[in-house]
From TrEMBL:
Belongs to the group II decarboxylase family. It comes from Arthrobacter gallicola. Its cofactor is pyridoxal 5'-phosphate. This is Glutamate decarboxylase. Keywords: Decarboxylase, Lyase, Pyridoxal phosphate.
Length: 460
């Protein structure tokens, strides 16, 4: 009988008996030899099974579902490099289509004449807006013969960590206005105490990461008008609309927060949040071209043409930009309105249901972006905390984070739910049942539960 070919062993034996899968694979060294592609696939596939179910992750703001046509486009364009605009001119054109559409959505006075860019996420988009502030401030100070040392940026203590990174990395003093029970976000209260001639700008957040609340951009702009009238300081606003930039235009059209306010120089958003695209994609747009200094733009020739680039990253995927354009065409204004309204309906359903469970008090209800937070009522119990509830929900697959609020309220713990496209009303009903069940379990404990502070798992 002829000797069997070794490859026959790989093809006829059951998958988990193949060479490579019958042994434990090293996770710290590249293997010396090769492995059948099916085997390598199976090992990696099985590793990822240990992750949580993305649809049940109510901590993340990032999109976890797209339709089959989007999946097909993704597979067709995953090899495109967004930076190589000479090789992929149509993808570059699609990028421009998108940010011009956003400029119009955000009421730019001249959507086709302004400027914007895609980014790897809204953290990068925020940093580009901040860099434009810093450079314009430096130009003005030098023209006046004044020092460009010690620039500062004013924002809420509840800003997402990307702004703290920006100030750290680019040598800017962060001036954090503390939130309080009376002022749950930056609303202009005592803003004059934080503004001086070295202030490069103010950040206003449309959808605070901690709670989902909108900061009232119009009120902040009005306060800055008062400060300019009394001091002469003309301070611009960057709106960090990572979430709200793709919510407010559709379901709160009466709200004035965008380029309708002249003091708003730039707006950033996450395409991979309520833009409904897979990660990672961000956008930043300037109200007028003059607010992006030309000396921040680089021109490179080594990709085959004289290409302008303004980004912290160089090579980055173009597929998500294509997906954003697909969704703008696929959904249109009315489609986005339906999707975002459905998410808000689910958020309001959940927040109302949670408010009716005895131990809980809402911090906000999800009527801004479809995100809300709640806390334990004072004096309700000393036997368990919201961290214990988060742990109990995790055993059923739900990731619902509990965490302390920022400085000035750090002794106050809240729990938060982010409602995204894909959390249906039916699934939300199941979640509410599980919260009721686990709350009842905790209330009936005869001894206190151990509790530790845990990382909130914020996503920008």
């Amino acid at each position: 009988m002829p000797q069997n070919d070794p490859q026959d062993f790989l093809s006829v034996n059951p998958v988990f008996s193949r060479a490579g899968e019958a042994t434990q694979v090293s996770k710290t060294r590249i293997p010396q030899g090769e492995m059948a592609p099916e085997t390598a696939y199976q090992i990696v596939h099985d590793e990822t099974m240990l992750d949580g179910n993305a649809r049940l992750n109510l901590a993340t703001f990032v999109s976890t579902w797209m339709d089959s046509q989007a999946d097909r486009l993704y597979a067709e364009t995953y090899d495109k490099n967004m930076i190589d605009k000479d090789e992929y001119p149509q993808t570059a054109a699609i990028e421009q289509y998108c940010w011009k559409m956003l400029a119009g959505l955000w009421n730019s006075p001249d959507p086709t004449g302004t400027i914007g860019t895609s980014t790897i996420g809204s953290s990068e988009a925020c940093m580009l807006g901040g860099l434009a502030f810093k450079r314009l401030w430096q130009h003005k100070r030098r023209s006046e013969g004044k020092s460009t040392e010690k620039p500062n940026l004013v924002m809420s203590s509840a800003v997402q960590v990307c702004w703290e990174k920006f100030c750290n990395y680019f040598d800017i003093e962060p001036r954090l206005v503390p939130i309080s029970e009376e002022h749950k976000c930056l609303d202009g209260f005592e803003l004059e105490k934080y503004i001086d001639e070295n202030t490069i700008g103010v950040v206003a957040i449309m959808g605070v990461t901690y709670t989902g609340m909108y900061e009232p951009v119009k009120a902040i702009a009005a306060k800055l008008d008062e400060i300019q009238a009394s001091t002469g300081l003309d301070i611009p606003i960057h709106v960090d609309a990572a979430s709200g930039g793709m919510i407010a235009p559709f379901i709160q059209p009466e709200l004035e927060w965008d380029f309708q306010l002249e003091r708003v120089h730039s707006i950033s958003t996450s395409g991979h949040k309520y833009g409904l695209v897979y990660p990672g994609l961000g956008w930043v747009v300037w109200r007028e071209r003059q607010w992006l200094p030309e000396d921040l733009i680089f021109y490179v020739s080594y990709l085959g043409g004289d290409m302008p680039t303004f980004a912290l990253n160089f090579s980055r995927p173009g597929a998500q930009v294509v997906l954003q354009f697909y969704l703008f065409l696929r959904l249109g204004f009315e489609g986005y309105k339906k999707v975002q309204q459905a998410s808000q309906d689910v958020a309001l359903f959940l927040s109302r249901g949670i408010s009716e469970i005895g131990p809980f008090e809402l911090w906000n209800d999800g009527s801004d972006i479809p995100v809300f937070a709640w806390r334990l009522k004072e004096g309700h119990t000393d036997r368990w905390t919201l961290y214990n509830l988060a742990d109990r929900l995790r055993t059923k697959g739900w990731l619902v984070p509990a965490y302390p609020l920022p400085a000035n309220l750090q002794n106050l713990t809240v729990e938060r739910i982010v409602v995204r496209n894909g959390l249906s009303m039916d699934l939300a009903g199941r979640l509410l049942d599980d919260i009721r069940e686990e709350t009842s379990y905790l209330n009936n404990l005869s001894a206190p539960m151990p509790s530790e502070r845990k990382h909130p798992g914020f996503h920008h």
